## 1
Amino acid sequence: MSFIIDYYNYWIVVFLMMAGFYIVISANNLVKKIVGLNIFQTSVFMMYISIGKVSDGSAPIVADGITTYSNPLPHVLILTAIVVGVATTSVGLALIVRIKKAYGTVEENEFKDKEDLI
Amino acid sequence: MFELHAPVLPIILPLMAAPLCIILAKRQLAWLFATLVSALSFCVSVSLLLTTLDQGVVSYALGGWQPPWGIEIRIDVASALVLTVVTAISSLVLVYAKESIEKEISQDRHTLFYTAHLLCLAGLSGILSTGDAFNLFVFLEISSLATYTLISLASDKRALIAAFRYLIMGTIGATFILIGVGMMYMKTGTLNMMDLAARIAEFDGNRTLNTGLAFIMVGVSIKLALFPLHMWLPPAYTHAPSAVTAFLASTATKVAVYVMVRFIFTIYGADYVFNTMSMDIILLVLAVVAIFKCSYVAIVQNNVKTVLAYSSVAQIGYMVLGISLVSAAGLMAGLLHIFNHALMKGALFMAVGAVLLRTGSVDIRAFKGLGRQMPFTMAAFTIAGLSIIGVPLTAGFISKWFLVSAALEQQQWLVAFFVLVGSLFAIVYIGRIIEAAYFKKAEQGVDIKEAPMLMLIPMWILVIANIYFGIDTSLSVGAAEAAAQWLTNSAAVVEATP
C-alpha cells in the first residue's frame, strides 16, 4: 500500500499519460486530438518536476533561512518543453482552422477524400 | 574568429536568417538570401568535415560554459558527414525551389516558405551538432514544427490533413524521446551525451534506464518512419510541395536515423543495446519487413510521388538494417546509405517535381512519352532510378555492395537475400515509370516543354554526384568508415577520458 501512496505523483503521471494517449488515438474530432496531445505532454512535464523535487526542499529561489532547494534544472528544462508544447498546439490549431476552411468539418470521419490519403 | 566559432555557425546562420527572410518580404530577395545562407552553411560544414576527419572531434562550449555543466556543441565525423549532406541538399533544393513552388504555393506565401525552410535547416543542423540530449529534443521539435508548416503550404487541401497527422505522430514521437531523456536524467543526473555515456556504463542493467531506452527507440522510430510506424510518411510526402518533398526525403528521415545511431552507439553503447537488451533482433526484423513490404506496396501505387515515398520507407529499412548488423562494417554501410540515398532520392523527387510543373500531374499516366518531351528530366530520373535499384557505376550500388558484404560477413544469408529481393522490387517500380516515359506514346496535341534551367541544374548536380560517388568512393566511403570507426570505438574513448 505504501508503495502506491509514496509514489502517488508517478501514478498521476502514468494515468494522465495513458488518458492523453487514449484521447489522441480514439478522438474523432481534431480539436479533441490536440487536447489529448496536451494532456499527454503535461504528464511528462509533471514527471520531470517530480524528478527535481528534493525532500524538504523549497522552490529554487534564493530566500533567507532556506538551505535546501529543489533541483532547478528540471524546472528549466520543462519550461523549454512547455514552450515547445505551446508551439505544437498553436501549429496544430492553425492547421485545424485551415482544415475547417477547406473541408467544412473537423470530424475525421467526415473527410470526403479520406481514401485518397493512402 | 571564424575558425573558433565554426561549429555553431551551421545552426546560428539559418536561425538568424529566418526572421530576416520575413522582413525582406520580396520573394525574389528572400529566395536569393535563403540560398546564400544555405550555401554558406554548406561551406562551413565542409570545412568542419575536413577538420573532423583530421582531428576526430570538435567541441564548442556555448556561452563559454564548459561541459558537462554548459551546453556543448560536439561534432564528430558522423555528424559532420550528415551535416554536409543536409546543407548541400538544402542549398540545391533552394535553387530548385524558385521555379518549382511558383505553381504549387500561392505567391504571398513564398517568403514564408523560405523562412520555414531555413528554420527546418537550423533544427536539423542543431540535432546533428549538439552534444546534449535535451537540446537534441528541442532541435528535433524546431525542425518538425517547420516541417509541418512546409507540408501544409501546398495548395492541395489533402496536404493539410497529411500535415495534421504528421503533427500528431511527430509530437507523440518527440514526447516519447522527452520521456526517455527524463528517465536517463532521473538516474544519471546529467544531460551531456559524453557524461551520460560514462555514467550509464557504470550501471549494469537498471530498469529505469532500460525503460528510457525503450521509449527513446520507439520515439525515434516514429521520427525516422521505421516500419510499422511509417504511416505518416507516404501521405505527407505525396501531398507536400515537390521542393519540400525533395528536401525532407533526403534530409529529415536521415537525421532521425542519425539520432538513433547517436543514442545507440554514443549514449547507451552498442554492447548494452544489442547484447543486453537484444534490440538488434527487433531492428533487424523490422528493417527486413520494411524493405520487403514497402517495396511491394510501392509497386502497386499509381501516384509516382507515393511510389517514391514508399520506396523511401524501404530505403530507411536498409539503413536500419546496417545498424542492426552490430558490426563496424554494417554501421558503415548504414551511414554510407544515408549519404547515397540523399543523393538519389533528392534527384528523383526533383525530377518528379519538374514533371508536375509541366504536366500538372504526378500520376503514372502523365509520364507517357515524356522521354521525348522532357529528355533531360527523364534522363535524370532514369539515372537516379538506376541508383535506387543499385546498378553498378551508381552510388546505390556502392551502399548495397557494402550492406550485402556486411551481412555475408556474419553469415546472414537470408538478410543478404532480402536486400537483393528489395532491389528486384525496385526494378519493377522504377521500371514501370521509365517504361511509361520511354515506351508509351504521348497523347496527341499536348506540347510539353523541358523543365526550366534553374530546376535542371540542381537535379543534374545530384545525378552527376550519384555517378561520381558510384565510381570514386574515396570521399564517401572514407568518411563513412571513419565515422563508423569513431562510433564503435566511442565506448573505449569514454573509458579513456576520466
## 2
Amino acid sequence: MAHERETDHATGVETTGHEWDGIKELDNPLPRWWLWIWYVTIAFSIAYWVAMPAWPGLHSYTKGMLGQSDRANVGKELTALELQRGQGAAALRTASLEQIEKDPKLQAYAQQVGQSVFGDNCATCHGIGGTGGKGYANLRDDVWLWGGKLEDIQYTITHGIRSGDENARMSQMPAYGRDELLKPEQIDDLTEYVVKLSNRPADAGAVARAAPIFETQCSACHGLEGKGNQELGAPNLTDADWLYGSDRASIRGQIYAGNGGVMPTWGGRLSPETIKALTVYIHANAGGQ
Amino acid sequence: MPTLIDNRPPEPETRTAVSAAARARGKGDAKGGLYKPREQIYPKLVHGKWRNVKWALLIITLGIYYITPWIRWHRPDGFPQQAALVDFTGRRFYFFDIQLWPQEVYIFTGLLVMSALALFLVTALFGRLWCGYACPQTVWTDLYIVVERLFEGDRNARMRLDAAPLSFDKVWRKTGKHLTWLAIAFGTGGAWIFYFHDAPTLLRTFWTGDAPVTAYVSCGLLTCTTYIFAGWMREQVCTYMCPWPRIQGAMLDHHSLQVTYLGYRGEPRGPHKKGQSWEGRGDCVDCRQCVVVCPMGIDIRDGAQLECINCGLCVDACDDIMTKMGRPTGLIAYDSEAAVSHRGSGCKPRYKPVRSRTIYYALALGIVGGLTLWSLIARPDADLHVIRDRNPVFVRMHDGAVRDGYTLKIGNRTFVEQRFDVAFEGVPGARLSHPGAQGEHVSIVVPADQVVPLRVFVTTPPNAELDASVPARFIIRSGDVQAEAKTVFLSGAANPQ
C-alpha cells in the first residue's frame, strides 16, 4: 500500500504514496475556492447553532434565536387541519343523511371520516373490515338486528344497545336453561326446531314436539315463522346468518343462556357530525336497506 | 487499457523526472502547497469551422431555451394554452399534443435513460462532444466570453486591463461587463420559471409581486448560478465540480475520436522562419495559438487530458496557422488513438465506428427508445385501476348471495367530461351496484382530465355455484373512450361458513 512519495512523470504532480493494483494516487492540490467554501460552511454551522435549535443538554436544549420548533409547527398544522375539518363538519351538520349519501363529494368526505372513526372506535368489536365475529354483528352484510336504514344505524350508534342509555335499544332474551324456564330435553327439541327453521335437516319428532313450545315461548319476539323482529332486535332464525354460531351446540347454548350483546352509547363521545359520517360509511358499505 | 500518448520528445533525466510541459503549466514544483489559486484563463477569439459549429449551436440551443415557453398551443377552455408546461399545481406535464400525468413518470425515466445512452454512444464514437458543444456550462460560458470581449477586448487587451491600475476606463468596462452578465443571468433564471407557469401571466405577475414565492426563489437561484458558473468559475466547474467528464472518460477507447495533436508530424517543434526548409523538423512552429484559444487553459500537445472538452477550437487555431505556413492542415484534429498510432508507424489508419461497445449502446438506445415511444403512443384515453376489498374479502348475504367490494379508480384523459358506464364480466348473473344509488346500471361522470374513485359492489345471484376465485374484468365505456382492467371475484367457496 504505502510507498515513497514520488513525482509522476506525465503530470509532474506528486503521488500520495498510495498504490492499488499498480495505480498510483496523485496528490493534486485542491482549488483554493473549494477551501473557502469549506470555511463558509463552518461559518454557516456556527451561525446555525445561534439561530436554530442545536445543542442538547441534560434537561433541555439550546433553543436558537429564530424560535424555530418542529413541535410548534406540527401544532400549527394540526390547528389548520382542525379548521379545515370544521368546514367539512359544517357541511355534514346541515345536510341530511340522504343528501350526504346522494352527493358524491359529501359522500366521499363522509366515507373518509367514517373510515378513520370506525377504525378508532368500532373496529375493536366489529373488526377493521366491519365483519364482526361471534357475538358481534357483521355490518357488511344485509342482515340487521335493529334495522339497516340510515336512521336506524344513526340511532344505534347514538344510543347504543343495552348500554344503560335511557334511549338505548333494549331487549332481553330469557335464559331458558340457566333460569330453568324449560327442561333440558325441551331445549334439545327447540334446538332441532330452530335448525329446521333455517332449512336444514332435523329430527322430525323433535321438531313436532317443539312446535307448541316455540309458539308460546319464542314467537312473541321471533315471529311465528321465526322471521325475527327488528323492533326488538330479535334475529331472523330462517336465514344463514347466526350471531352466536349456526351449529346445534351454539344454538342450544343461546337458548340456554339468552345472551345479548352490549354496544356502548356514542352520543356523548362523538360529535353528531362524526356519527353522521360513520352512519353513511357503514350504510354505504353494507348490503343496503 | 488505453495509455496516454506521450507526444513529447524524450527528455534528459532531470533531478525530478518532471516533464517540460508539466513544468510549463506551473504544477511541477513539488513545493506546491495543498491549495492552488486559480490561474485566470483568457481564451482568444478564433475563427474556423468548429468555431462556426459552436456559434450555430449556441444560437440554436439558447433560442430553444428562451423561446419555448412562449409558444402558444390551442387546448380546450380551462386548459393551459402553453405548448410546453410543467404544471406542478395541477400535476400535469404538457408538451404540444402530449399530456402526461404524474403516474407516467416512467416515460421521463425512459427519456433520461435514452439521454444517458445517447451520451454514451456519442462519447464512444466522437469523444466529449457534449462537453464541447452542447453543455449549458459551455454554451453560457461562450456567451459570457462574447460579452467580456465586447467590453474588454480580446485576450491581450483583457490581460493588460487586469494588470492595469484602477482607472475610470477599467471601472466602467468591468461594471458594464458584470451588469450585462447579471442581465443575461436574470434572463436565464427568468426563462426557467416560464416553463412552470403560463408565461404571459407570470411575466405580468412577476413584476407586480403577485407571482408565487417559488418563482422568485428559482429565478434568483438560477440568476446566481448562471452568473457565478459562467462568469466566475467557468473551467473550474468542468474540472472540479462536474462528474460527467469522469463518466465520459470511462466511455472512451482507442477508437473514439478525440482532439489529438499528431506528435509524429509535429515534433520536433520549433520556430520557423520564412524560407527555411521543413526537412528534419516537425510541422509544429510552437506558436502557442492552440494554448491561447483553449477555454480550459491546457496545452493539447501534451496529449489527452481530463480537462479537455473536445471543443475543437485549437483545431481551428492550428489549421489557420498551418494554412499560413503552407503546410497541410490537421496537425491538431479529431482523430482516434488507434488511427494516430497506425499512421505514426506508417500504416493506413483504420477507423472502427462499428465495434462491440457502440453496437451495444446503439441497440440499448433503440430498445429503450422504442419502448418509451410505444408506451407513449399506446396510452388509452381512459384509465382504469381496480382495488379489491381485502377486508372483508367477500360478504355472504342472507339469501346466500355473495358480495365483493371494489374501488375503481377511473381516469379520464380527454379534455372533455365523460360519462362512463361501468360493466362487470366474469360472473354470470352478477349485479353491480354502488352506494348511494340503487339499480342495475352503474355510471359515473368523470370531469375532463381527472381521476375519480368509485366504490362498487358485485353481488352474485343467490346460491350461485362458483369457484373460490373467478377471473373477471371491469369495463368502462363512454362512447369510443374505453378501458378495462382484470380482477378476480372471490366467492368464499373454499371456506363455506
